[in-house]
Design goal:
The structure is a single chain. With 240 residues, the protein is α/β, with parallel strands linked by helices. It has 10 helices and 10 strands. Strands 6-7-8-3-9-10 form a 6-stranded mixed sheet, with helices on both faces. A 4-stranded antiparallel sheet has the order 2-1-4-5, with helices on one face. Helix 3 packs parallel to helix 6 (143-155). It is globular. 42% of the residues are buried.
Length: 240
């Protein structure tokens, strides 16, 4: 991916603390238009905290977050969603007492156009299983189905940048395959993505570029294929 593409998201020397504990220690990375960038690392590396800080769910102690060329530090997640910066959280966060269709409609709550129904049909095209169960309550679905719904709901917001936090966590191997297949499909449709994922090999196989986090810091970065082939990455994260 050429760096000539516009930078949509730029994180500079980001620091985040929980009480006296510094969870993120000066992290910097960027995401260019059309890219899929993976942020990988072991559990506890600070990946989810970084995403929460980017999307306004966690206060920034120091550094800056720029989106579409402007600082967004201090803005709430609802403001950012309106601007097209949309996150699918770890644990999915579906509205369990609402139907699939109602969840998808909630994803479009910031919109006032007349294309919402067409976009629901688009989501059903990507996730036929959701279409089959359109009136089912989200809370009665499997974890994998809820992950599909969370991804579909995020697409309803027409994101300029889509952030995914651990989409494969807790899913069966078959469902993991499906979820990564959908991530690939969404990216190929032109959606810029930042993927946080413990499954380093799968994440890097899909990505254009990657960043490796360890103990709150970025320790390596580069083209995804190069990171996938790097002996240090393979030893630390791919079990080799």
């Amino acid at each position: 991916m050429s760096t000539a593409a516009p930078t949509l998201l730029k994180v500079s020397n980001l620091k985040v603390a929980y009480g006296g504990i510094q969870a993120v220690k000066g992290v910097s990375f960027d995401v260019h238009q059309g890219e899929l960038v993976s942020l990988i690392g072991a559990n506890g590396a600070g990946k989810t905290t970084t995403l929460k800080a980017v999307t306004g769910l966690q206060p920034v102690a120091a550094g800056d977050v720029e989106y579409l060329g402007k600082s967004i530090k201090g803005q709430g997640p609802w403001d950012l969603a309106r601007q097209g910066l949309v996150m699918i959280p770890e644990g999915r966060g579906t509205f369990t007492r609402m139907t699939i269709v109602e969840n998808l409609q909630m994803g479009a709550y910031t919109r006032e156009d007349d294309e919402i129904e067409a976009d629901i049909d688009m989501v059903f095209g990507i996730f036929p299983r959701l279409k089959e169960r359109a009136q089912q309550l989200a809370g009665t679905m499997s974890g994998g189905e809820q992950q599909m719904l969370a991804m579909g709901r995020a697409l309803m917001a027409r994101p300029k940048v889509l952030l995914l936090d651990e989409p494969s966590m807790g899913l069966s191997p078959i469902m993991v395959d499906k979820i990564f297949e959908v991530v690939h499909t969404i990216h190929k449709q032109g959606v810029t993505m930042l993927l946080v994922e413990q499954n380093a090999s799968r994440a890097l196989e899909l990505a254009n570029r990657g960043y490796v986090m360890d103990s709150g810091e970025v320790t390596m970065s580069g083209e995804a294929k190069a990171l996938l082939a790097d002996p240090k990455v393979r030893a630390a994260y791919l079990g080799e």
